[in-house]
C-alpha cells in the first residue's frame, strides 16, 4: 500500500494543532491568590461556559469544561446564557471580605452568583432585573456581591449571566475601599459624553427654530437618538434613575432610530432628491429597511436587535459610498461628511464586531458606537457651521442686491421706486394714527447751465453735495430719495406743515452757503428751490401730495428761485 507522506504529515500537524489549542482553551483556571487586605483585580484569567439549552441546572454546570478567557468577554447573540468560573483563595491568616463587581449588569435579564467550597454550594444569590425584591445587589447599574473568605479558604465562584440578546460582560474583584472608588467613577466618562451631545442637541434645535431648515431638525433628532442610546447602553440611565431589565428593552430602538435620522440628514444636506437620483434611491432603500426593522422591534425587540447590527453594517457601506460619490462630484460638504462619518463607521464597526463576539473586550471596542457618535457629531458641526456661513453669505448678497435695487448709485439715497413703496405704507400708517405729515420737492436751480458750463462730472459733485446735506439735516424719521436727475423728495411723518417748512428752509439756506470745488483755485456756489405740501389725512394719496408739492416748487421757481414755498389751495 502506498502512503501519501506529505498529506499524512499535514493531517498529523492539523491534529496536533487542534489538540494544543484545545488544551490551552481548556487549561486549568488559575487561582487568584489574595495576600494582604488590598484587593484590586481588574485583569485576570477566568473560565466561561455557554449553556446553549438555557435550561441546565447548576449541578450540571459544575461538571462542564470551562474555556479559559480574560475576565471580560463578548460572545455575541448565540450565548445568551453564559456561566463564568473564578477561583479565589485567601492566603491571609484572617478573614477578608471581597466584592465581585458586574459593572454591565444593567443590560442583562438576570445575574446569579454561586459560591462553592470543597465541591459544596455554600451560598447562592439571584438578581432578577425585573423583580425589585432581588435588586439589593444593584448599585448605580452595577451588580455588587459581597464574598467572605475565611483564613486560607479557597472558593470557586460561578456567575450566571443571562442577557436579552448580546452577551458581553466583565467581572472585577475589589476590597471595600476599592469597590467604593470603582463605583464612584464608573460613569464619569459617559456623563461627559452625554453632556456634550446634549449641548449639540440644544444648539441644533435652536438653529432649526430660527432657520426652519429640516437638516437641523434631522441632525438634532439623530443626536437625541444617539445620546439616549449612549446613556442607556453605557449605564448612565441605570445610574441616575435605577432603570434596567425588560422595561428598557424597547428603548434600544433608539439605536435603530439613530441611522434613520442620519440618512434623512444626508438626503437633505446633499439635496439628493433634486440632484442625485441614484444616490437618493440608495439612501431611500436602506432607510426603508431600517424603518421596517424599527416597526418590527415594536413587536419583537430581540429579533430586531439581532438584525440591527447587520443593517448598521449595510447602512455604513451605503452611506460611505454615497459620500464618496458626492466627493467625486465635488460637493463642498462631502469632505467634512466623509471625515465625520468615516470616523463613526470605523468605531462603530469595531463595536459591531465586539457585540457579535468577534473582537476582544476593550474600552474602545465596547464603547465604539458612543465614541463614533461623539467624533462624528463634532466633525459634522463643521458642516452646520459651513451651512450657516453659506446662508449668511447668501443673505448678505441678497440684502446687497435689494439695497442696490432700492438706492441711487450716485447719491446712495433711495430711488424713486423704493420711495413710492415706502411712502405709501407710511401714509396709511399716518392716516391710522392721525399724525400730520408733509412732502417736499427740491430742485437745483439752473442745473442745466451748471452742466453746460462746468461739465457733467461737476454736475455730479453738485448732486452729491445736495444729497449729503439732506442726510445731514434731515431726521431719522424722514424718508429721502433722489426723485429725478436734479430733483429730490422728502417725506416727513409726524410733522406739521410749519415744521416741514422750517426744516426745508434750513436745508435751502445750508446749501446756499455751500461751495463745490471746481479746481484748485476756483469754487462754485449754487441754490435750490423747494415746494412743500401737507398730506390730506382723510385721503392720503401719494400722487396727489407729490403733485401739490411740485406745483409749489414750480411757483418758487417762477418767483425767482432760491426759496421755499408751501402749497396753498
What is this structure, in a nutshell?
The chain contains 18 helices and 21 strands. With 569 residues, it is α+β, with helices and mostly antiparallel strands. The strands form five sheets. Strands 1, 3, 4, 6, 8, 9 and 12 form a seven-stranded mixed sheet that branches. Strands 2-14-7-11-10 form a five-stranded antiparallel sheet, covered by helices on one side. A five-stranded mixed sheet has the order 16-17-15-20-21, sandwiched between helices.
Q: How many separate domains?
A: 3
Question: Would you report the number of β strands?
Answer: 21
The global form is rod-shaped
The largest pleated sheet is described as: 7 strands, mixed
Look at the structure and give the CATH class of the largest domain.
Mainly Alpha
Q: Calculate Rg over CA atoms.
A: 41 Å
* CATH fold field value of the largest domain: Rhopdopsin 7-helix transmembrane proteins
Note the gap between the termini.
Answer: 137 Å
Q: Considering DSSP H and I runs of 4 or more, what fraction of the residues is helical? A: 40-55%
Name the average pLDDT: 87
Protein name: diguanylate cyclase
GO molecular function: diguanylate cyclase activity
Signal peptide: 1-27
Transmembrane segments: 190-210, 217-237, 249-269, 281-299, 305-328, 335-355, 367-386
Describe this structure in words.
Its EC number is 2.7.7.65. Its cofactor is Mg(2+). Residues 1-27 form the signal peptide. There is one protein chain. The protein has helices at residues 5-25, 58-61, 176-184, 188-211, 214-233, 236-241, 254-269, 272-275, 277-297, 301-328, 334-355, 363-366, 368-406, 416-433, 447-454, 456-473, 497-513, 542-558, and strands at 31-34, 40-41, 45-50, 67-70, 72-76, 81-90, 96-102, 108-117, 120-128, 138-139, 142-149, 154-163, 167-170, 172-174, 437-444, 479-482, 487-493, 515-519, 522-525, 528-534, 564-566. The strands form five sheets. Strands 1, 3, 4, 6, 8, 9 and 12 form a seven-stranded mixed β-sheet that branches. The protein is of the alpha+beta class and 569 residues long. 52% of the residues lie in helices and 21% in strands. Helix 18 links the parallel strand 20 (528-534) and strand 21 (564-566). The protein is built from 18 helices and 21 strands. Helix 4 runs antiparallel to helix 5 (214-233), helix 7 (254-269) packs parallel to helix 10 and helix 10 runs antiparallel to helix 11. The chain has three domains: 30-184, Sandwich (Immunoglobulin-like); 188-399, Rhopdopsin 7-helix transmembrane proteins (Up-down Bundle); 416-566, Alpha-Beta Plaits (2-Layer Sandwich).
